[in-house]
Amino acid sequence: MNEGITQQNNRLLALDVFRGMTIAFMILVNTPGSWSHVYLPLLHAKWDGATPTDMVFPFFLFIVGVSMFLSFSKYDQRLDAATTKKILKRVLLIFLIGLTLNYFPFYNRSLPTLRILGVLQRIALAYGIGAFICLAVPTKHLWKAGGFILVFYWAAMYLLGGENPYSLETNFAGTIDLAILGGNHIYKGFGIPFDPEGIFSSIPAAVTVIFGYLIGGLIKQNRDKGTLVKNLLIVGTLSIFIGLVWDLNFPINKPLWTSSYVVYSGGIACAVLGLLIEFIDIRGHQNWTRVFVIFGMNPLIIYVLSGVIVRVMLYIATWENAAGETIQLYGWLFNEVFAAALPNQLKLASLFFAVFIVFICWLFGLLLYKKKIFIKV
After folding, report:
1. Distance between terminal CA atoms of the chain?
2. Cis peptide before 105 (omega within 30 of 0)
3. Are 295 and 23 in contact (CB under 8 A)?
4. d(CA 65, CA 127)
5. What are 104-131's pLDDT values in tens digits?
6. In terms of Cα–Cα distance, which of 155, 119, 124 is closest to 27?
7. CA angle at 46 for the pair 41 and 49, rounded to the nearest 5°
8. 202-221 and 139-160 are packed helices; what angle lies between their axes, rounded to 10 degrees?
């Protein structure tokens, strides 16, 4: 998913930077030294509402959509046998990588309780649904199709969700996932079986991809970068406003990937991309960009690496202490190195631990970058 914009192709460096920043932040918020010591902006909202952390995933799907427009330009944005095969292959591959990551390290995992869905699986489903819609629907009508899907999702959630349709316990998206997957194969981090990367909520997530696809078209139409920035900021501001108004009736909510959340987060993504283009491509402040371009050129493989590192530190790199207790490298490293260095600032220590993991992933990305290895999934 790396048909990024590079200077060599006379395209926008800002998109590669935006993708790299998103992946880096995604790893950062996923790997604190201790979940008991995390700054609030680095945590997801408990249910309704949105923190900066809640913007990371829609940003990535938005960027997928932008890149998808550029990628499918060589197919004239047509849905044919070649593009269908390309889409299905990519969906299957990304989904299986995510499922394998859930199962890793294999020997201590139980298939009857294996979580089926996850971040990569959501990317696969949203990309697949979004790609087929974008290529099947004429571009000039695509915003209508996206709007229809969001209204349909709102109506389904409201009408079929019970007395409190947007609650954790009774929402329709969770009911669908339970019926299809069963409680044993669903995320339980909310205290009950409910998957924030569920099947039904992947439908509005696909609209986030469509949003990005439409912005990809806007980028192609606006050759003048100043005009492009202005239009991105206008679209972004309008979308944020619509999302906030919609929030009054259909709350902004990442776990449910509500329609208001799609519009709101898409608007912020537009604004961020516009500001990056202004700062990087127009004003030429590029000295710092290489750090994030390295992440942006191999985003999915670096994200997978971060998951592997965490699981190795939790499940493989373990030992028993003198008291017979099992010690995990993850906890030991945080407690004995980072927390020991900052005993009175545990949130800061937890953040530094996360930065350390990000740095390890960056070194891997740097190695690939220097060898000109760009792994496309």
Report:
1. 6
2. yes
3. yes
4. 8
5. 998 877 889 999 999 999 999 999 999 9
6. 119
7. 70
8. 160
